[in-house]
Amino acid sequence: GGRSIYGRSSLVIAVSTIGVMGCLVWAHHMFTVGLDLDTRAYLMAATVGIALPTGIKLYSWNASMLGNSMAFNLSSLWTFGLMFMFTLG
């Protein structure tokens, strides 16, 4: 078959969690509306909570790429660049 994905089940759970939590924090993009302090605190905490499954996702990507034999071609360099820039913001 194909290449193995490191931590497939944890990766699926992490991506699903990001999707669910992303639906719960959609209002944090409404920064010009003047939300209550309680609402802003909830949205801030929930947005920070997305960092854990995102870290799991990035770790799984790195482990999958580096755990398999791969050629460093242009697409793999772009993938590493994406992960690097995504990590730094």
Automatic annotation (TrEMBL):
Record-annotated membrane-spanning stretches: 12-29, 41-59, 71-88
Requisite cofactors: heme
Pathway: Energy metabolism; oxidative phosphorylation
Gene Ontology BP term (one): mitochondrial electron transport, cytochrome c to oxygen
Record's catalysed reaction(s): 4 Fe(II)-[cytochrome c] + O2 + 8 H(+)(in) = 4 Fe(III)-[cytochrome c] + 2 H2O + 4 H(+)(out)
Signal peptide range: none
SUPFAM superfamilies the UniProt entry points to: Cytochrome c oxidase subunit I-like
GO molecular function, one term: oxidoreductase activity
Record key words, sorted: Electron transport, Membrane, Mitochondrion, Oxidoreductase, Respiratory chain, Translocase, Transmembrane, Transmembrane helix, Transport
Domain Cytochrome oxidase subunit I profile positions: 1-89
Gene Ontology, cellular component aspect: membrane; mitochondrion
InterPro entries xref list: Cyt_c_oxase-like_su1_dom (IPR023616), Cyt_c_oxase-like_su1_sf (IPR036927), Cyt_C_Oxase_1 (IPR000883)
PROSITE patterns (UniProt xref): COX1
Family: Belongs to the heme-copper respiratory oxidase family.
Name of the featured protein: Cytochrome c oxidase subunit 1
